[in-house]
Amino acid sequence: MTELYKQAFQYATEFLQSANELPIQVSEDARRNLKYLDVDLPKHGMDSVKVIETMNQWVTPATMKMGSPRFFGFVIGGAYPVSVAANWLGTAWDQNTGLEKTTPAVAMLEKVSARWMLDLLGLPQQSATAFVTGATVANFTALAAARNQVFTTAGWDVEADGLIGAPELHIIISEESHPTVYKSLAMLGLGRNRVIKVPTDDQGRMDMEQFPEIKDNTIIITQAGNINSGAFDPIGQICQLAHTKNAWVHVDGAFGLWAMASRKLKHLGAGLELADSWATDAHKWLNVPYDSGLAFVKNEHALKAAMAITASYLPTENAGRNPSDYTPELSRRARGIDVYAVLRHLGSSGVEALINRCCDCAKYFADLLRGAEFEVMNEVVLNQVVVCFGSEKLNLEIMDQVQKDGTCWVGQTIWKDRLAMRISVCNWQTDSAAVDESFSIINKIAKAVISRCTKV
Ligand SMILES: Cc1ncc(COP(=O)(O)O)c(C=O)c1O
């Protein structure tokens, strides 16, 4: 056993120590070699040391270096060393985190982390917290609680009787909501299309001039951090409107909710603490390993009514805070371990410094791009920069060459009907040197492509 673990530890640490120096993009050779993993199910097993050696041989080289300080794709973070170490320990502990009685230690870590998170983000202290896989499931979980409360108020028991014959329920959502929110609505039986979409302004915020009338039985889904611009919906204003009508306000803050940990940035989400539920990702800006999302719900009863199970073999009396009362899963890994480790390591000032540093780097990136006379499409209020180099063809070619170069990695988006490059800064390692190095490559490639295309 010791040799096996030592070997895995060695591979993992070698990977972590070299990853920042290696090309971020996966090479074509490494992709091709993945075929060596695709064997028929063996009748006879392989020695465990050999299994780990084989996996390391083919998987490590084909791993996109997403934890690099120069990875700016999608909106994803890296993993702080303390969270990787805690995660390894958590794997060794192998705790099935459903029940407090059987896994008191990890249930305690989750209880404490939940309290810290509410404190850090300035959310109501009585809120219940669910540790889930990511923001998709955090949105799903919070919206299940919303569905419970809205139907309960309308005199309908949706958990018992389902949706057939239920009173009408209305969803108000931004036209720029993340696609996974629609997926959550579909999974809840509320429908992707049975929504009222609110048009947005030039930064992707809901336009309050065009906000619809709020009817009885309404859930309003807002966004803290537009996936392109990073802008926030006017959530405080929406909450004030909504609460005169008894509507539930949910906040999808997959990355943007973290701004509430910064005194410099929290004005973006002014009043969002008045909402009813919030979703965020720890595997984004808190920089813990996958997977780790969090749902917070002000009305604990609504969340438990939607999520708790009862079964004859499960303890109910003096059961403490059963983590599974708050989540879609019964059995799951103890996600609170990694969250606890990073929060204890950084403290609230360290989280604030992380969020501020990323946002400062995004602003610096935008300044460099504007200085080189490229068009930055958004007001850089958070960690997102959307840059457009010209025609669709030009943008595609520049992004392709930047990705192939391997120094940094940027994603593509379509925003306000234009194809563009999206740069997202949410890695704990990113600093101005990483931005300088990345900008220098993007600038060189973009200038060369533009000059070649204008000559043709
Ligand atoms: C605003 C928003 N909501 C939801 C999600 C889905 O999060 P996850 O991929 O963690 O499920 C994302 C992911 O980027 C997001 O940015």
From TrEMBL:
<keyword id="KW-0456">Lyase</keyword>
<dbReference type="InterPro" id="IPR002129">
    <property type="entry name" value="PyrdxlP-dep_de-COase"/>
</dbReference>
<dbReference type="GO" id="GO:0016831">
    <property type="term" value="F:carboxy-lyase activity"/>
</dbReference>
<dbReference type="GO" id="GO:0019752">
    <property type="term" value="P:carboxylic acid metabolic process"/>
</dbReference>
<dbReference type="InterPro" id="IPR010977">
    <property type="entry name" value="Aromatic_deC"/>
</dbReference>
<dbReference type="GO" id="GO:0030170">
    <property type="term" value="F:pyridoxal phosphate binding"/>
</dbReference>
<feature type="modified residue" description="N6-(pyridoxal phosphate)lysine">
    <location>
        <position position="284"/>
    </location>
</feature>
<comment type="similarity">
    <text>Belongs to the group II decarboxylase family.</text>
</comment>
<dbReference type="InterPro" id="IPR015424">
    <property type="entry name" value="PyrdxlP-dep_Trfase"/>
</dbReference>
<keyword id="KW-0210">Decarboxylase</keyword>
<protein>
    <submittedName>
        <fullName>Glutamate/tyrosine decarboxylase-like PLP-dependent enzyme</fullName>
    </submittedName>
</protein>
<keyword id="KW-0663">Pyridoxal phosphate</keyword>
<dbReference type="Pfam" id="PF00282">
    <property type="entry name" value="Pyridoxal_deC"/>
</dbReference>
<dbReference type="InterPro" id="IPR015421">
    <property type="entry name" value="PyrdxlP-dep_Trfase_major"/>
</dbReference>
<dbReference type="InterPro" id="IPR015422">
    <property type="entry name" value="PyrdxlP-dep_Trfase_small"/>
</dbReference>
